[in-house]
Each structure stands twice: as C-alpha cells, then as structure tokens.
Amino acid sequence: MTRNLLVGIKNADPLHFISNCELYVEIPEGTIKKSYLLEKGFTLNPGEEKFISVVYNHDYSEPTERTVYRIQFSVPIVGGYYGVTQPWLPVGTHFIILKASATETKPCEVVCKVWTDDRKKLHMERV
Questions:
Q1: Distance of CA 59 to the CA centre of its chain
Q2: Which of 40, 57, 101, 126 gets the highest tally of CB atoms within 10 A of its CB?
Q3: Domains parsed from the chain with CATH numbers
Q4: Which of 127, 119, 86 has the alpha carbon at shortest distance from 3?
Q5: Residues 116 and 69: beta-carbon distance below 8 Å
Q6: Quick one: the chain helix, strand, coil %, rounded to 5?
Q7: What is the pLDDT of residues 40-83, one digit of tens each?
C-alpha cells in the first residue's frame, strides 16, 4: 500500500482567476537545498482549490531484508525522474519548503515538517 500526502493550493480571491500557477518543493540534500517542480501551468478559478501530491511512501505488508523505507517526492516523470531516480529522503524527520507562484499573485512559501512514525506511517504538517 502507498501513502500519498497532498497539499491544497487555493485561489482565495472570490472574483478573479489566477493563471500559470506553479508548485515547487525544496528539499535538503546534504548541505545544499534543491528545488523540484511538482506541477506547473494550471489555472485556478475564483475560490477553486487544487490538490497536488507532494510526498509518498510504501507500506509493505510483508517486508523483507531487502525492503527499503524512504520518503519519496512526487516529481513528475516528465521532469526526467522515475522510480529510484525520484528525489527521496531517508525515514526520519525532515523540513521542506513548498513554493507556489502565479502570474497574478506574489510568490508564497510554506515550511512543512515531513516524518515517519514508529510504524513507518508518513505524516506532513505545516510548521
């Protein structure tokens, strides 16, 4: 089973749409932070909310000695990433930054904590 965590992007303006929306995730990689595109080029109508996958992990029903637990990021395949080449973090507690932008708005950044509990269940919350 896969646990997939989503973030909602909402256009709070009751009258105007926003276009060319983009969502990036910035993750720590050693001492360097790197940004990855999660989704781009979408439009939100007034009051509309879109949910975008950010992270996921697998809950193995029958783990073996070769089972690798990790926190994987939902970077689209069109970005050149697939499977093991997708960015990931080891099981544990990490802080990531979600960066959203659109043509008609100022950029927005949100810091989130991503972690796995003792049962390897994935969690994410805004810090």
A1: 18
A2: 57
A3: 2-126 (2.60.40)
A4: 119
A5: yes
A6: 5, 60, 35
A7: 999 999 999 999 999 998 876 676 777 678 888 998 876 556 65
